[in-house]
């Protein structure tokens, strides 16, 4: 570890990446009194992409920041979650007493988070290229030729994290062998089936993970209360992926062929989709090292996971709450705070990474409290 100077609550924190984890960490740290600036490579938020499920453990972090109401307003609090058999539609599992489970468009969620930042602290078009650690500060270099200084830096720059690469050396994430088809569209386009606009349904193929040839799932939920937008995201095997990390557009026929024999409700959704994209799913093994000197990692930069549990952003949000608590407890010794944060996070994030890739979450009647009952704002922290 490099040397650490002494700091106080006026610690200047640079957060690299204004995605879901970086924005949440920045709001939490600003509320705790730190001097935080966010540097994001994108120029603006486009309303493209995906839906996000915010389960009870995730909503608890957002509620502690006073953001639960605007997020419920931007999304849909769902009243029912069902696992169903792929062809017959038989209900396999429906968790009881589902509380505080919100689904929302990723861009609408990000807008709520970014609006909660102090004015003038979000800097777009700032792609981090270099990071130079000095004895008591860190100097950041951006692709546009500008630079910034901070006392500590948080790498919340996603699965292809530049901060991670600088700290730990280059190592590409691994293609998992699975792809996801995604689409967002008006439910009025669906012919012959009623679409419930307050429910999430996951259709599971019978052999699931034990036989990759047959492993498929199809998850659908609404995205906003103001519109009749619905969303589907799927998981299916595909041996190779040669297209980089970006999604590609695909024809409905490809998706229909992949889901041949599924329940007519699933096929009606595929037929209704005006545009479908295919996304590669990348993963990494748990990292042994989460920080070095003045820099620490958070969210997908640190522990990206398969999306089968809908908890990737949830883990980034919990990271944000716990890193804030560790820095509040030890504002004059960030390296201690970073190690305390790692110690208090690694078991839970590694377990969720594993359960996610095992693809067993809600696949059959099971206990959910271990995942959903966690409260990052009040859980006991080990020093
Ligand atoms: C198909 C799919 C479905 C998912 N569904 C769910 C779900 O339902 N619920 C859930 O909790 N999670 C879900 N996830 C996971 C979730 O999207 C991620 O875990 C979450 O977005 C991680 O947040 P993050 O802030 O770490 O990274 P990101 O959200 O990826 O943000 C990283 C940010 O860093 C910026 N950036 C990157 N490099 C640089 C740089 N050099 N300089 C400056 N900025 C940079 C990027 O532009 C981006 O804005 C899903 C993922 C996938 C693929």
TrEMBL record:
SUPFAM superfamilies tied to this protein: FAD/NAD(P)-binding domain
Q: Which organism is it from?
A: Eoetvoesiella caeni
InterPro entries in the record: FAD-bd, FAD-dep_Monooxygenase_BioMet, FAD/NAD-bd_sf
Q: What protein is this chain from?
A: 6-hydroxynicotinate 3-monooxygenase
GO function terms (MF aspect) = FAD binding; monooxygenase activity
- Could you say which cofactors this protein requires? FAD
Q: Which Pfam families match?
A: FAD_binding_3
Which segments constitute the FAD-binding domain?
A: 13-330
Specify the signal sequence span: none
Keyword vocabulary terms for this entry: FAD, Flavoprotein, Monooxygenase, Oxidoreductase
Supply the PANTHER family for this chain.
GERANYLGERANYL DIPHOSPHATE REDUCTASE, MONOOXYGENASE
């Amino acid at each position: 570890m490099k040397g650490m100077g002494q700091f106080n609550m006026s610690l200047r924190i640079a957060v690299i990446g204004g995605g879901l984890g970086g924005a949440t960490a920045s709001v939490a740290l600003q509320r705790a009194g730190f001097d935080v600036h966010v540097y994001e490579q994108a120029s603006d938020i486009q309303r493209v992409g995906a839906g996000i499920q915010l389960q009870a453990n995730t909503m608890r972090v957002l509620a502690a920041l006073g953001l639960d109401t605007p997020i419920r307003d931007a999304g849909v609090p769902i009243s029912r979650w069902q696992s169903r058999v792929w062809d017959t539609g038989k209900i396999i599992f429906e968790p009881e007493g589902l509380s505080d489970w919100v689904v929302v468009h990723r861009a609408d969620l990000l807008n709520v988070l970014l609006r909660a930042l102090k004015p003038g602290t979000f800097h777009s078009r700032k792609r981090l290229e270099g990071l130079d650690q000095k004895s008591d500060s860190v100097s950041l270099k951006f692709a546009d030729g500008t630079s910034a200084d901070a006392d500590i830096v948080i790498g919340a720059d996603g699965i292809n994290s530049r901060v991670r690469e600088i700290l730990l050396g280059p190592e590409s994430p691994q293609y998992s062998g699975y792809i996801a088809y995604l689409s967002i569209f008006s439910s009025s386009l669906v012919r012959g089936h009623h679409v419930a606009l307050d429910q999430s349904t996951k259709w599971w193929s019978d052999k699931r993970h034990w036989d990759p040839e047959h492993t498929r799932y199809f998850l659908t939920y609404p995205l906003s209360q103001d519109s009749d937008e619905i969303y589907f995201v799927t998981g299916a095997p595909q041996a190779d992926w040669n297209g980089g990390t970006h999604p590609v557009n695909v024809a409905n026929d490809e998706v229909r062929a992949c889901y041949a024999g599924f329940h007519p409700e699933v096929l009606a959704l595929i037929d209704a989709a005006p545009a479908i994209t295919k996304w590669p799913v990348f993963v990494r093994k748990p990292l042994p090292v989460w920080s070095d000197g003045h820099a620490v990692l958070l969210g997908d930069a640190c522990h990206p996971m398969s999306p089968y549990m809908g908890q990737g952003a949830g883990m980034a949000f919990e990271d944000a709450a716990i890193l804030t608590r560790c820095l509040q407890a030890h504002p004059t010794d960030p390296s201690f705070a970073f190690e305390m944060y790692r110690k208090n996070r690694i078991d839970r994030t590694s377990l969720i990474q594993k359960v996610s890739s095992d693809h067993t979450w809600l696949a059959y009647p099971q206990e959910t409290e271990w995942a959903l009952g966690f409260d990052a704002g009040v859980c006991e922290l080990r020093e």
